[in-house]
Amino acid sequence: MDTIRQFASEFFVTGDPLILGAQVSIGLTMVAIVFVLSYFRKWGWLWREWLTTVDHKRIGIMYIVCSLLMLFRGGVDALLMRTQLAFPGMEFLHADHYNAIFTTHGVIMILFMAMPLMFGLFNIVVPLQIGARDVAFPFLNSLSFWLFFWGAMLFNMSFVIGGSPDAGWLAYPPLSGLAGSPGVGQNFYIWGIQISGIGSLATGINFIVTILKMRAPGMTLMKMPMFTWSVLSSCITIIFAFPILTITLFLLFMDRYFGAHFFTLDAGGNPMMYINLIWMWGHPEVYIVVLPAFGIFSEVVATFAKKKLFGYTSMVVAMISISVTSFFTWAHHFFTMGSGANVNAFFAVTTMIIAIPTGVKIFNWLFTMYRGRIQFTTPMLWTLAFIPCFVVGGMTGVLLSVAPADFQFHNSYFLIAHFHQVLIGGVAFGYFAGLAYWWPKMFGFTLHEGLGKWAFWTWNIGFYVCFMPQYFLGLDGMTRRMYTYDFDMGWGPLNLISTVGGFLMGIGFLFQVWQIAHSVKFMKRDVTGDPWDGRTLEWSIPSPAPLYNFATVPTVSETDDWWATKQRRAAGVPEAPAPEIAPIHMPKNSSIPFIMSFCWFVAGFGFVFDWLHFVIPGLLGVAACMMARSFSYDTDYYIPADEVRRTEAALRGGKA
């Protein structure tokens, strides 16, 4: 019993009432889930319809659900930090707990909230926009999701088992090395991100191939919807950036496990090599998540201004320019490194240059709205709020790009305010707009507009109340990673205001949850498939989209082809006869992605605690799943034409 008691005290995180509360709530939630699934006999349904699905739409929904849960987790972390900083000398969190929280907050919000929300929208929208019936590699798509899911679960377990990482969200050595972080928290960081990162890289490859090879007949590259262009440019960045992250974390793993010296000063290593490598991934990562948001704003502005997007070609050029230039700005994160004036000048100039294509896009959106018949729906409100927010965030970014000024701004709360302004004002606002815009296509009913607008205003007011004071705190000398401060620093009032703003954003999130719950209960069904009078192909099919997406593959002749089709119908132009419905080739569900990803989770858990009795079975399971996939021949089937006709007739109210 003494041995078991000692093991449990080391294995589980103990001694903090907040963490104890989290452990109890996690346990109760798991019991509740098991009880509900057992009581309603839904285990088989869960396995057949969701855990083994390769349908891109269901995979997209699972990404979005996970992302919203991670938004809650990361948001709670943020509120805990703001509570600690609300008053001078607060003792709400002790130093180690605060370090762990700001580390997990950053990782969760970027990698486990923004990325899966982005991938969810990729999955739901891109095949429908390009007239495809699925993604290029459905099996790989399912594997990508489950690798993300089990990587996120592994990382989040550290909060209650073993201890969270506390070396910062980018884990700079020597603090993230074995000497600086001797516990298992940093191991959770490495393997949680590695496993999910493999899934992210696979998603990038999958959607590049999908967009380049599976577009509907007639849809040339320059006729693609702007969201699809943004996904293509984001995925191009992914396939070049994420291998850098994979190798960097592998080298850190070698340092910690085998006593290598890649990033330690002993035996010729250099911590600055890690910082260069991590930011060679980290700064393109910012553009990876913001480029699809730009695509969403383009779709929303054109739809709700009832106008063709202004400057289509320049928007495409701007997207690709941002994707390429993002790889030449990484050193602006450490102008203070001492690399010399010439190097600093180069990266200062490239950072200023990358602002130009972003400015082009802002003007294009404004010109699209000019003299348009603007409808102030919830997606449009998020878009309108984004423009001034991102302009201010971009201007403060240009200030940070001036190397001599950055010597003063570096690691201050000015920087904190800047990157939250562009990531919340750009990424979060964009994905909230996209969620509201494509929600009817996902679920067949629209979200409640009134509650959506309450969420919008509380989020926006809370955002400015929270982050505007942080610019002044930074200019007044308050640095990041500071968990307490003295009364005589004079930072108390601004920190209190900032904390109030953080809780207002939390209320905005609660309004979003209420909006979804209310809309599910009192759903306003979309019987048209086109509730917004949209412009692109996804609005030409019923909501929610059937399994096969399109009964007959559309032929595209213009950029906004669905809009042009509606205009021709209104003008009485006769349409070409629809092609005859034929059997549709579809992929079969597969359990291998779920099982293989779980095996990666088991192996990662073993690597975290250095338990070979977990590592070896986990890796053998991965190999066995790969072998099983290699000999899987019965992987597809055909939906009969009669079944397609019946489905179309039911979805279209009897009009097949």
Strand content: under 5%
Q: What is the helical fraction, as a range of percent?
A: 55-70%
Give the averaged pLDDT, no decimals.
95
Structural class: mainly alpha
Query: Uncertain regions: pLDDT < 50 for 5+ in a row?
Result: none
Walk across the major sheet and give the strand order: 1-2
**Series of secondary-structure elements, N-terminal to C-terminal:** HHHHHHHHHHHHHHHEHHEHEHHEH
Number of helices: 21
The backbone outline, from C-alpha atoms, is: globular
Question: How would you describe what is shown here?
Answer:
The chain is mainly alpha-helical and 656 residues long. It is built from 21 helices and four strands. It has helices at 2-11, 17-39, 43-51, 56-85, 95-129, 138-157, 185-213, 226-258, 271-305, 312-325, 341-353, 355-369, 378-401, 403-409, 413-443, 449-475, 492-521, 561-570, 592-609, 612-630, 641-651; strands at residues 445-446, 524-525, 584-587, 636-639. The protein has a two-stranded antiparallel ribbon with strand order 1-2. Strands 3-4 form a two-stranded antiparallel sheet. Helix 4 packs antiparallel against helix 5 (95-129). The longest helix is centred in the first third of the chain and has 35 residues, at 95-129. It is globular, with a radius of gyration of 25 Å. The model has no long low-confidence stretch (mean pLDDT 95).
